Every structure is written in structure tokens, then in C-alpha cells.
Amino acid sequence: MAATVIYGKDLARELRNSLSHTLERLKGKGIVPGLTVVLVGDDPASDSYVRGKEKACLELGMVSNTLRFPESMAQDGLLELISRLNLDDSVDGILVQVPLPKHMDTDLVLRTIDPAKDVDGFHPVSIGKLLLGQETFISCTPHGVVKILEKTGMPLAGLEVVVVGRSNIVGKPMAMLLMQAPHHCTVTVCHTRTLDLKAHTLRADIVIVAAGKPRMVTADMIRPGACVIDVGVNRVPDASKASGFALVGDIDYVPIAEKASFVTPVPGGVGPMTITMLMVNTVKAACLRRGLAVEN
User: Fold this and answer.
1) CATH at residue 207
2) Sequential DSSP letters for 151-210
3) Does 99 sit behind a cis peptide bond, omega within 30 degrees of 0 on the bond before it?
4) Maximum CA extent, the chain
5) Are residues 103 and 177 in the same domain?
6) Who contacts 70 (Cβ-Cβ below 8 Å, separation ≥6)?
7) 3-state secondary structure of 264
8) Is residue 254 part of a domain?
9) Is 247 part of any domain?
10) Which of 150, 229, 251, 276 lies 20 to 30 Å from 4 when distance is taken between CA atoms?
11) CATH number of residue 39's parent domain
């Protein structure tokens, strides 16, 4: 059988259309949510991602402010900047693009952001609330994956989910989200030291791969009819491309697409949902900071 391909860009468009109605109502109250992104250094992938955020903000009529600094920026200068943004009432959401230069303490930088403006969902307060099942800002990529899973129409309660990857950005929050209400999945988290990864993935109803290794999960590791979500985005050499490289995910897409029930492509799968959920979080922050009800 051939899998149903879930294009995140289509779902993202639906969610942004819904979000635009909320923004119109906020505009009627004189509120225009604002997102400030801080980019330190000139990493091409980070720059591309930031430009995508700017574009999404502008298309929705939100305020977008990107502050760019050289890699040599001192950590104290970045911390001082964040402290100023925390106090700036025109800023609803603050996002510091990672990875940061090696001379910076990423954990310290992220902890400096006001949790009320932590639209990336990386602050320890946000992660702690997520662990406890409390209302909070949810990390954008895991949140986007959940929206994709809900779009499949599968009853998620009780399903076996294997998450491949244990990063603070995707793997860990992904597991926390799915094991809690309203999803109630049984979740196994695998990583580079997992013994016999294939044994785990073969029993899974849903496999979510966020390991950062091109095509590491192959078709023989997926049972027929499983749902496979590919979070990875990797550049691999490709002489047929003008750029000299192609973008591939963490799964061997073509043979898996012939075996799975649902699958996400790379590009065009999870990526567009990440930016969309950032927009959702920014609007949520704007509402919460003003004591307004948050529309889901």
C-alpha cells in the first residue's frame, strides 16, 4: 500500500487562515502582536529559518523585528539586550535563534528570557509546566507534529509511539506531549545508545524521527501501516542540483512511503508547521500579557 502523504505546508495554511481571524479581532482592540528575533552569527540555516519567520509575521500582519549581531558579540551584551526586551511592552514574544556561538552559554541565555515572552517554549519554566501538564508555551516543532498527528484522524489514546532523538528542542518535549492528556500515548524515547533500535521501531504505531542523521531509519525498521513523522532536515551532496546538495530527512522516504499508512515529506512536511506554531505562540503571548482569553 502507499502512504497518505501529509504536507505540513497545507495544514500550516489552514491554521494561519484561522489565526488571521483572531488577529483581526485583536486589531479591532488596538492590539498587534509583535515578535522580536535575535540572531547572532551568520549560520546559513539559521538565517534562512529567521527569514521564514519574518515572512510569516508580515503575511499575518504581525510586527516582526529581527536584531542581527556578529558572531563576536559578547555574551553580556546579549544578556543585557534580552533584559531590555523583557521590559519592552511592544514586544510580546522573544526568540533567540540557536545554535549560538560557542563562547556563549545557551542555557543561561534562554533562562534570561521572560517566561511570559518565551514563544519558543525553551525556558525551564515552560518545560517544567509542560512536564506537569500545565498550560504553557509548547516548543514549536513538537506542537506542530501533534497537530499533524491530529490531522490524520487516528485515535491516539493507547498507541505505541517511538521517538528517535532526545534533544531538548524536539525529542523530550515530544514525548512529554504525547504521553499526557488528551493524547494518552505510550511513548518510548530512543537515542544513539539505544540497543537494537529496530526492535523498538518495529512495534510502534507511530515513529517520530528527530535524530539529525540522513536516512537513518529504513523501511525494514517500520511495520506495515505505521505512521512515520520525519522531523529531520539534512543537506546531502547531489551533483544534479545547482546548489550541489539536496535536502533529505532522517528516514529513507521512498520505500517507507510504500509501507506506512501516513508519512511526512522533507521538505514540506514538519518544517512549515514549526513556524506556524511560533505564530500561534506569539498571539497567545500577546493575549495572556493583556489578560485576554486565548483562542485555540
Assistant:
1) 3.40.50.720
2) HHT---TT-EEEEE---TTTHHHHHHHHHSTTT--EEEEE-TT-S-HHHHHHT-SEEEE-
3) yes
4) 56
5) no
6) 40, 41, 42
7) coil
8) yes
9) yes
10) 276
11) 3.40.50.10860
Tally the domains of the chain.
2
Task: Tell whether 244 and 190 lie within a shared domain.
Answer: yes
The answer, as to whether pTM is greater than 0.85, is yes
**Residues noted as catalytic:** 53, 97, 120
List the grid coordinates of 278: 511560533
Same domain (yes/no): 66, 160:
no
**Do 257 and 3 contact (CB within 8 A), yes or no?**
yes
Helix 8-28 to helix 140-152 angle (10° resolution) is 110
**Residue pair 3/261 in contact by the 8 Å Cβ criterion:** yes
Residue 296 resides in a domain:
no
Tell me what the pLDDT averaged over the chain comes to.
94
Q: What is the Cα–Cα distance from 130 to 41, expressed in whole angstroms?
A: 30
- Ramachandran bin of 165, using left for φ above 0, alpha for ψ from -120 to 50, beta for the remaining angles: left
Question: Is the domain of 70 the same as that of 164?
Answer: no
DSSP helix/strand/coil, 89: coil
Q: Is the dihedral of CA 101, 83, 116, 38 positive or negative?
A: negative
Pair 38, 148 in one domain: no
pLDDT 10s digits, 206-258? 999 999 999 999 999 999 999 999 999 888 887 888 788 888 899 999 999 99
Which domain range does residue 104 map to?
30-114
Model pLDDT for residues 184-215, shown as the tens digit of each residue: 999 999 998 999 999 999 999 999 999 999 99
**Is the residue at 5 inside a domain?**
no
Say if residue 201 is in the same domain as residue 146: yes
